[in-house]
Structures are given as C-alpha cells and as structure tokens.
Amino acid sequence: MGGKSALQQSAERHLWMNFSQLGYYARGKKLPVMVRGEGCYVWDEHGKRYLDGLSSLFCVNIGHGRADVAQAGADQGKQLEYFPTWSAAHPPAIRLAERIASLAPGDLNRVFFTSGGSESVDSAIKLARQYHRVTGNALKTKIIARDIAYHGTTMGALALTGIDSIKEPFAPLLPGGIHVPNTSVYRLPPDRTADSLAEAVKRRIEIEGPDTVAAVILEPVQTAGGCYMPPPGYFARVREICDEHNVLMISDEVICAWGRLGEWFGCERFGYIPDIITTAKGLTSAYAPMGAVIARDAVAEPFLNGDTSFLHGFTFAGHPMSAAIALANIDVFEREDLLDHVRHNQDGFRAMLESLRDIPIVGDVRGTGYFHAVELVRDQDTKEPFSPEDQVSLLGYLSDELQERGLIFRADDRGGPVVQLAPPLIAGPAQFNEMEELLRPVLHKASELFPHAR
Q1: Contact 53/422 with Cβ under 8 angstroms?
Q2: How far apart, in Å, are the Cα atoms of 182 and each of 15, 146, 189, 220, 268?
Q3: pTM, whole model, 2 decimals?
C-alpha cells in the first residue's frame, strides 16, 4: 500500500498511545487509523473494513454510528454544557442516577459518578475505607482481589490488579492490595478443588485478620487470563464470607455490566447482590467517557447524617453531556431489547467458538453472554502450554494475521495465549459466521507453524 500516511506519521510523532511500544511502528509496522464506524464494523483511513469483535475495548455495546445517541450529548451541550456535581446538581445527572438505581439489583440505590473504570475502582477503594472508618473500624483498610485480575491503571486500582508485569514499573504501590487464587478451573492445581476457591477468600481474611480487611473485589467473569468463569456456588459463598467478617463485597463490572452477560449487571447473571458495583464502558457504550460507583443503602447510610462527607470527587463526575448520552444509550437498550437479543443469540456465539475445537491448538472455550475466550495450548489432552517464547510468537502472529484479515479481537497473554472476543450486543449469526471464517484459517495455520502434540 506504499508508505505511511500523513496521519500515521503524525501519530508516530505526537500521539502517546495506551499500553503501546512507541518504537513498534518506527520499525516499519503501520498503525491502523480508524475513521468511521457503523454497527459491528469500523473502517480505517484507507477504506478497509474491520469486524469489531471486541466492541473496540469491551465498551461499544450498542454498536457504532448511533447518531441519535451522540446527538443527545450535543443537544444537552446547547442547554448546559457543564456544571460540577459538587455543591449543586443538574437534571441529566439526577435522571441518570435515578435510572441506574432503578435497574440495579436489590437496594443498590446510591450512584457516585466518575470519568471511567479505573476512577470507579479507586472511588470504591476510598469509599470502602472511609465507610469502615466512620462506622468505627478504622483498621479495615486491606482489599482482597484475585490473581491475574485487572482492575485498572490508576495507583489505587493498580494495587489491586494481580498482574505483576504492569505493576513493577510503578512500585511502591498503595499498601493493602492482597490476592487469592482466581477461578481458572481449566488449570486447577492438583491440591486445589473448585469448591476451595471461595474458601481461599475466607482463609485470606482470617490470615490478614478480619479487623484489617475492608473489602473483596471480584469481576463476575474475570477478564485478564481470558474470561475465567466462577464455579457453581462461588459468589454465594463469597457473599456469606463477607457478611460473616463485615467485609464489603465489590463487584467490578466495568466490562460485565450493561448487557455484556445478558443482564443489566453481571452480578445478576450469577445471583448475588454486592455492596458496591463499579462500572463504566457500556454505561455510555463509549459515546462519551463516564463511569459510576453504585452503593447499597447501608453503605451510604453513615454519610447521610451529621457533617460526615465522602471526601472524594472528580471535575467531570456526572458531566451533563455524558449523562445525557448515557440516558440515550439506555434508551437504545430498552427500545431494541438488547438484553433479550444477547440471551437469544449467546448460544449461537458459543457454538461457533466450540466448533473450533477440531483445530489442534484450541484447548478451552469459556465465557458467557457476549464475552468469551479461546485458550490455545500445545497439547489438547494434557493442556500442556506453549513455551514462553512460542507464546509470544504465536500471539504476535495471530495479531498480525487477524488484523490483516479484518478482525478486531484481544490477544491475552496473562494466563496462557488467549483469543478473546466481545462483539457489540447487536451482533448476530451473520457476524458469528464471519468471525469463524476469519479465525479458522488463521488458527489452522498457527497450528502448523507452532509446535503442538500430533
């Protein structure tokens, strides 16, 4: 296609992209520059079409190109573009908080707005700590998370993230982040059972001292590592353990809320009610930056009387234009019954991925709703993983080949090599068939290029 475009050159010179090696594109690789989106597809500056198999970053839930949703923000901007939700409020934030509370399970009725997912997790950490302080338990500061789990990049959220490689450059981190085993039942060690995974939370609380643990934070389906699913009864048992030790249960639903699992909130998919939900991404389907922390009435109660304040906030929390877009986004969910669409089509999505098991390197298929992963292995029978060197080369090959063919997906290397897919909630059989047509030949070729048991 010739040399690099002016936009590509400008990006290489000035744009510092997230989680990117700045020298990668200087070595000759071409940076895709996306200029348009519609439905389940995006187009780059050269007119090439890509199937967005990841909802861009697990967030464009209603699909691309909804001009009416974007227009809702513009219309609000004409009336009131901004005012902080500190000493005053405005109708979009009020209406959105009420709408979220009406959709959230149980008595999760209090909504604290943020600008995104990491801010939501940081806010939940501070809320849990201050809640215990004002209720007479000032030593309760530790937060239990799971191995390999990703909770964000701000310093508080990073302390809870269980991925050493992205934490080490920023040490020392906020103290108090401690970890327990995740729910990767595909690779359970010989001395561990599925039932033991929830009990590991109990043991860790007891080891740390129940009077020092503020909260447990868990994703309904763990993203990093590749859609780790909870074994039956896991969340019910963790809920019991938290209640027993006066520990708040935080459901990190930055990805798993807003229809991703076929429910408004991921906790509903597994039948538990947390004390706090953190969310973002699908709240606006990424048509504007916004996140939220949703708390149960009991968590808010100590802040309702006297002069106690939650000493925390963000300039853009509850931004009027973002709130208007979120309301329009939820309207689309309800008008088009997207939750039912996911429930109706999720089995077809899963069946397509299961059909790939005839490829020698496909080891596991896991997930639920529109959130699935395929783990690749050297040996299907023994689950033997690829060597670290082959894993790097394999994921690099998949990324290059599938991008060239026009599929946007996530290549995860935090557990084993994983192909992760989370299409827009409007996707259906036609998109699933297209995914298979793109994935199958590349995975077959990868099984020939990289050593596996034959």
Answers
A1: yes
A2: 36, 5, 12, 11, 20
A3: 0.96
